[in-house]
Amino acid sequence: MEFWYKEGNIIKFFKTVETETKHILDLSDRMYKLPIAMISVVAVFGLGYLWYSFNALPQNAPHEITVSGDGRAYAKPDVALIIFGAHTEAIKSQDAVSQNNTIMNAVTAAAKGLGVADKDIQTVGYDLQPKYNYTQNGGQVFVGYSLDQKIQVKIRNFDNINAILDGATKNGANTTGSLQFTVDDMEKVKSEARADAIKQAKEKASSMFDAAGLSGAKIVNISEGYNNYPQPMYATGLASPMAKDSVAPSIQTGQQEVDVTVTLTYRIK
Predict the structure, then answer these.
(1) pTM to 2 decimal places
(2) What is the CATH number of domain 76-184+230-255?
């Protein structure tokens, strides 16, 4: 920059020289420092999380031991279950239904007459189907309808089993069978078997802990399995009505066996 100025009687000339300062930004340092800083932050956070997780863990992790016991109970059956049914065929469906209902109403009435309550008679099957005959050329010809109806009768007085069987067949039941015996209050029998199984499992656990020198065991879980052994069944299949002087089969009830398996889980620190 140039300019003139007067100092007294003297005119002077002054010239200034401008200097330019240049700053060069070195980006190479920032390119390395920024990722390093981010990695450091992540590492510090990860170490902190690991430290927190480690301190949150129980200092003495518990150990678990499982033992099992088997218990059995026996009971004399007090209920007999038997299926009575009728199979009828007719050209018209209403005729097949009418014939079948006549038979089943008579069978039901006979059972009630021998002391069976209404609540102990239940319909368990009713199947009405059209019937066809097949021809030699692969066709089919309609020939009518068939109806299969079944009821389940629960007999509580075993002295009447033979009489009820005889009465059903005399009144036209042509499908008789599936006689089986059970205990009406099965839960009571299961409770006895369960108590026996738990006692056995606890005795086994106590013996193990004493031998190993363990103490402070606590039951934290219990589970069970259940088996009900089936009783003998009597079936006549498609039976024809019994003659007037026929002898009903002799039925043996035996006894009901119930098996319960109990598993106990102990926690020991």
Answers:
(1) 0.59
(2) 3.30.70.2970
